[in-house]
Design goal:
Number of helices: 4
CATH class: Alpha Beta
Shape: globular
Mean pLDDT: 96
Distance between the termini: 45 Å
Structural class: alpha+beta
CATH superfamily: Nucleoside Triphosphate Pyrophosphohydrolase
Radius of gyration: 17 Å
Number of strands: 11
Strand content: 35-45%
Length: about 220
């Protein structure tokens, strides 16, 4: 089997927050903390109840396998200038979001450093309202194994009060009723480095659901 070429990213200036036009292998970027661009999409449902759609990361992922995570998230490949979130959304959950319905929350400057990883990323964050059933999603690149519909109130509550909840999930073949608790979610969602991100996200979701207009931004 022929090995796949390594993903190439575009280097960004960490201080200026601007792209440099230089390409960098993903492994090198993550080893030396070379900033690059990422995209995030959070899908929100208003019916039958107010929910956020989470993806379940595939069990073979090298980072955080099996955790519930942002609906769509990934790096922007070097040379891709348009339809960045559309490309990632189609690959991961089989949809192409309409630009006119995307709500742009701007960029979040993210940094994560541990013994094996130095990750700096400018994350472009979007909200998207869609009441499509979970069965509307398909998992095209095998990076996602399921979609979960999690009540917004529960998502907020587990930051301070961990308890189980039965939710609807879809694994690409059948709808299931699945019990989740805080330890099923990506641990970095609860990290101090993400507190501003999550505060802005929940405020934006509340504005979207209550008044249909979002005024808050990541920066």
């Amino acid at each position: 089997m022929t090995p796949q070429p390594e993903e190439m990213l575009e280097e960004w200036d960490w201080e200026k927050g601007t792209p440099t036009g230089k390409s960098i292998p993903r492994s090198v970027a993550h080893k030396y903390g070379i900033a690059h661009e990422g995209v995030h999409l959070w899908i929100v449902r208003s019916m039958p109840v107010q929910q956020i759609v989470f993806q379940k990361r595939a069990s073979h992922k090298d980072m955080y396998p099996g955790y519930l995570d942002i609906t769509v998230g990934g790096h922007v490949p070097y040379g891709l200038d348009t339809n960045k979130i559309q490309k990632e959304a189609y690959e991961e959950i089989g949809i192409v979001p309409d630009d006119n319905k995307l709500i742009d929350l701007g960029y979040f400057r993210y940094e994560e450093k541990n013994a094996t990883l130095f990750h700096r990323e400018f994350q472009r964050v979007y909200l998207y309202m869609s009441n499509e059933p979970l069965t509307a999603y398909s998992f095209n690149d095998n990076e996602v194994s399921a979609a979960y519909a999690i009540p917004v109130d529960y998502c907020k509550a587990i930051f301070t009060d961990d308890y189980p909840m039965e939710v609807e999930s879809y694994n690409g073949h059948q709808l299931l009723s699945t019990v989740v608790s805080k330890n099923n979610f990506h641990p970095l969602l609860f990290a101090p480095s993400m507190s501003h991100y999550m505060d802005v996200l929940f405020t934006a979701i509340e504005q979207l659901l209550q008044i249909g207009t979002v005024t808050i931004r990541m920066s």
